[in-house]
Amino acid sequence: MTNNIKQPEPILPEPIELDAPMLDMDFTAKAGTPLPKGSKIAAHEDIVAALKSVQDPELMLSVFDLGLIYDIKQEPDGNVYIKMTLTSPTCPMGAEMIQMAANAVSSVVGVGEVKVELTFDPPWSMDRLSDEIKIMMGI
Prior knowledge:
With about 140 residues, the protein is α+β, with helices and mostly antiparallel strands. The protein has one domain: GMP Synthetase, Chain A, domain 3, CATH 3.30.300. It has helices spanning about 20-25, 45-50, 95-105, 130-135; strands spanning about 25-30, 70-75, 80-85, 115-120. Strands 1-4-3-2 form a four-stranded mixed sheet.
């Protein structure tokens, strides 16, 4: 007796192999305008709070708590530079997420121009999750 039941197609596509040069491409997002001279500069905590308001659209968790923010540099003129990654180089929302981060930070009073640069070096890992997320996920 043979089994004539057709096996279901996989729900998720096979992972895409990326060439190394693709990972080295320059992906940036910009937002904001220069602050007038003498303006009060935003507190670092306000910038972090803005980043915590940006959620990964698939995971519905903050990009900050996911550990996607690698670096925040605040200049004396109020401009902010952020280095950010994604959980996967194949993330379909990558460009939108870095722009959401730039827009959120540029909305903070005391922030001038914002530049968010996407990097995959080092690659993201679950070790970067905040303690709160690790507890929530039972890690």
